[in-house]
Amino acid sequence: PIKKVNGILESPTGTGKTLCLLCSTLAWREHFKDTISARKIAQRMNGVELFPDRPVSSWGTAATDGDVPTYYTDIPKIIYASRTHSQLTQVINELKNTVYRPKICVLGSREQLCINPEVKRQEGNHMQIYMCRMKVMARSCHFYNNVEEKSTEKELIESIMDIEDLVKNGNKHRACPYYLSRSLKQQADIIFMPYNYLLDSKSRKSHNLDLKGTVVILDEAHNVEKLCEESSSFDLTPYDLASAMDAINIVLEEQAKVVQQNEVNAEFNMELASSGLNMELEDIAKIKKILLQLENAIDAVKLPPNGSGVTKEGSYIFDLFAEAQITFQTKSSLLESLEQILQFLSGRTGIFINTSGLHKLSDIIQ
Ligand code: SF4
Known about the structure:
Helices cover 54% and strands 5% of the residues.
């Protein structure tokens, strides 16, 4: 029976680690599948043995959990993670040279996979993500609308595509490669992804990655520790806070004008105006206060004169945020307000407002 333990392999570069890992896991998967088939045949034969000296039900029990009944849907998926996409491309190329032809899928970001010219043109990852989400919700990206139909195309399901092939095929079939890869993931035998998709819980959630029962391979694992550190770290610069503050000031000003206008309109029994943002002035002002308090709390941190910076316990970040009223209790209502403001700003016409600071803050709080 399978032992379900972790293994660490160390071997010099160029000794064939990748190929070993790929072939052994894929072979094991096939063995697993054969075992299930053998059991099913045995059940149908109703006790009649094809080979009396070797009962069918005993075939390949090493691959599965012995006597526990197993189904084809129990065959574990393989998750193959490496540091970068270019490393994954090399792994996928090695796979192409083997006899195995599993269904594969490679996960990437919108920045790498989006083919919508209007969204691609946006500067910064945040804006691209935001604009894409809006388009997906309104079903106004035709590349997205084609995904459902195209995700059953044999050419796309059965070919072994790296990230570049995915973009090429997405363009060819006029289907969004980003959502295509997410859809191919459902049926994939092996899923390739950079570490951060696997190690960052937010990313796992957004890609709907369930690790339960999977075989996880971390290639180049000496980089993992650093990546874990990075995935739970963030930087928030004075520029980010200033940009967030500017955006909030504009929203406050515009909303105040609407309130003023409505006071006049109400007096003359005229229809009330709306800015499209359904928030009270006080709630917007509260966000501004939080930003100011956060700025003050950061400013108040005493730095040594030699410019070496300070290092504190990890839990210190919660104390710092609490000084700006950002706590586990206020988190969800704060995020909701930020989301409303960001949505309002993205749908607003006229002068461009930089929302990167607000986006960053929202990500950090999340
Ligand atoms: S759905 Fe795909 S192609 Fe359309 S904007 Fe989003 S990532 Fe880009």
